[in-house]
Amino acid sequence: MITIGFRSLLFAEIAGLPVSPDLTTLATWRAKVDELPYVKNRKAQEILPSDLARLGQ
Known about the structure:
Helix content: 55-70%
Strand content: under 5%
Shape: flat
Number of domains: 1
Largest sheet: none
Number of helices: 4
Low-confidence stretches: none
């Protein structure tokens, strides 16, 4: 199960919302979560070019 915080960061990435680089603890946590097998190997949540086009990016 992916946490709400991780889903929020994923949404921010898709929506093009900046995440402050000053939030080093958040960045460290995101890197750790990204390496978890159930996150690293996820398929349904890949951001595809068609997704970005649909969202106007």
